[in-house]
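hiii, so i know i said id send this last week but things got crazy w the move. better late than never?? heres the sequnce for the chain we talked about at the cafe, plus the structure i predicted for it. fair warning i was half asleep when i ran it
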Amino acid sequence: MDIRLPILHLAAWTEAEAPALPATWGWAEQACGAPDVSVLAPLLRRRLGALARGMLHGALRCHPAGGDLRMVFASRHGDVARTLEILSDLAAGEPVSPTAFGLSVHNAPAGLLSIAQGNRAGLSALAAGEATLGWGLAEAYAAWCADPERPLLFVYGDVPLPSLLSAFEEEGAGACSLALLLGSGAPAELRLSWEACGETEARPMA
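okay and structure toks below
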């Protein structure tokens, strides 16, 4: 399978150092250090976890204005740290915060962006294990092809797993996010290719 995504704008973030992007994407914004979500209202910013901050950092740079915009968000693990906190409260017989629960769901960053920008267009939030980035891009491409006259925002992000789940973490994993605004008349194109591969040995779960 071979698809080509027309990129109107790209923004990338990582907590360590700016990602190495092709020179032809020199116009794309890159950032390192703490993600910047200062354009959001203070009440909304205080609710954000590390994952949402990273994903919204790029999303707001690709599409800073309000209005309806279709969106596809993808994250391999989502906000697992917040989910573990909820489970710990339940195990201890403590009440669960409705806000914490609302922000633990996989589509929380996309929902927060929709609220902040008054966006009532459709959105998707997905996870596909190690292939989350690739299948997220495929989902975004398919959604854009259904209505190519309207731009579409794709956002991918992940943060390191909590120490309790460190056995499932890939070596070198860190906090990162990538945002792409797809649309007609784009100045750049991202080409993705899938190739068949042989069977691989199943990875142990623990």
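btw Residues 18-29, 202-206 have pLDDT under 50 and may be disordered. thought thatd interest u
miss u guys!!
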